[in-house]
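User: structure tokens for this one?
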Amino acid sequence: MAEASHEARHFSGLVFVACMFIGAGLGLLFNRPEVGGAIGMGVGFLLMGFIRIKNVKPTPVTTGLPRTLPSLSLTAVGIIVMLAGVSLIFKPEWLYPYLAGLVVIIIGLIIFVGGMAGLKRKTEA
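Assistant:
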């Protein structure tokens, strides 16, 4: 029981801080960070109280990649290569800046997905 109470108190503190920053961020959008921060703190204190009264426990968040991702990725690469070929025939000047940018974006996505998959494997072990 003591551990559950400690977990709820820790979670409610995180919710309070999150509400405070969200309020300050919204206040910055309207050039009134002090008002947004005050509103965020008020909402944060209310949520903090509700969480402690109800003894809310956080649940772990899990994410996964769909099994069809490799097939969809290959399909997308195939379409891009075909469009690049058509572009080479009709408008070769369009190809360089857009294709180079697209290749860099795809490489970045591959690195990102590989990193996320590695993190998932390490947290499961």
